[in-house]
Each structure stands twice: as C-alpha cells, then as structure tokens.
Amino acid sequence: MSESPDRTPLPRAFFDRPVLEVAPDLLGRTLVRTAGASRIELRLTEVEAYAGAIDPGSHAFRGRTARNAVMFGPPGHAYVYFTYGMWHCLNLVCGPEGHAGGVLLRAGEILVGADEARRRRLSARYDKELAKGPARLATALDVGLSLNGTDACAGTEAPLSLRAGTPPAPDQVRSGPRTGVGGDGAPHPWRFWIDDDPTVSPYRAHAPRQRRS
Question: In the prediction, which pLDDT does 4 show?
Fold first, then answer.
C-alpha cells in the first residue's frame, strides 16, 4: 500500500485548465467517496482525457445534450454515465465553463475502505483488482447516476472530493491510445497511467460490433 497521501483538498482552479493538462496531473491524487459514516479513499493510477468539440471520442463532440450537459461546466463537477445497460463510469469535468471536457477515472488503488469495496466487488480475487477499470472503480466506490453533477470541490465531507495525494515522478507517467475508442479519436494518446502499477487496467483496442445477419 502507498504511503499516507497529502490531505490538502484540490481547489476548483486545479480543474479549470485544459483537459490534457489536468488528466496526467490527476495521477497519484486521492479520490474520496463519502456516504454518511462510510468512507473510501482511492489513489488514482489511470485516467483518460476527453476534449469535447475537438474530440470524436467524446460524448460532447456533437454538442450539448441532456445526457452530457454536466461536461460543459463548471469545472470540478462529476460527470457520471451509464453504459452497456449495466455499468456506471465516473468522470471529472475540466476546462472553462461552456467548453466541454472531462477526465474518465479508469483505475486506482484503494487506500482506505477496502473491506467495503470488497463487498461490492465480490469477483475481485485480489485488492489490486478492486478498482482496475472504470466500471469496477465506480462499483467499488458506489458511484451511480445520483452523483452526476456532484461538486467535487464543495468540501471534504462532500460525496466526492479530491486530495493532493502523492503524484508520481514525471518519468513514471506513461501515455497511449484510449481504451476502446475507435474512429478518428482512436490515435489520440490521451490515456495516462503510472508505469508498472498493478492496479492499471489492460489496454484493449476498439473492436467494432458485429451486426447480426
């Protein structure tokens, strides 16, 4: 387990920057999920950037909708979506208000609350698998659509908050194509992870769905 992280909350100004600056800077930061007396803390080890109108891989590429409205700001809020009819994914909104951008939280190491995370992730054989992938991360932290739009800069007792943590050394940060993104957005090296960290999820290229004959 990693050393005790820096407890300083991340201010809104941290998120009010271009998404490609924020995404790698989130590595090593501590995400805190609070629900009553329950508390889980997770060290972020893998993220992906989605850059709105200039990014064909982004939910906001074609403009604002009811589903993606949170992505247009203000920064520092959570964008939660439901996918494949069964999973939730958690993103953090970045950039100036009105310009959609978000960072998908793909994986992390549970620092506090592993027992609670295990109760939600019964299929995990080892603790390193508890939040190894975006759907697993959201499940372990009990993140659903009720948290869509939550202000992660509202204070340390908010349902979601970010602490400074312990960022990795620059030479430990790796980047490459995003998992499962096809089309014109496929080549962008906008997935960032901590090198050799066992909680990072395996890369999978986009596989087009086969139509039934």
Answer: 53
Whether the bond between 74 and the residue before it is cis, its omega within 30 degrees of 0, is yes
Q: What is the number of alpha carbons within 13 Å of residue 13 lying toward its C-beta?
A: 0
Distance CA 174, CA 133 (A): 17
- Where does residue 60 rank: exposed (0-12), middle (13-18), buried (19+ CB within 10 A)? buried
- Residue 29 is predicted with a pLDDT of 98
* Other C-beta atoms lying within 10 Å of the C-beta of residue 38: 10
Cα–Cα distance, 93 to 101 (Å, whole number): 6
Contact 47, 26 (CB under 8 A): yes
For residues 190 and 5, give the distance between their C-alpha atoms in angstroms, rounded to a whole number. Answer: 25
* DSSP line for 126-186: SGGGTTBSHHHHHHHTT--GGGTT-BTTS-TTSSEEEE---PPPGGGEEEEPPTT--GGGT
Whether the full predicted model's pTM is greater than 0.90, yes or no, is yes
Q: What's the rounded Cα separation, in Å, for the pair 49 and 21?
A: 9
Mean pLDDT of 31-35: 97
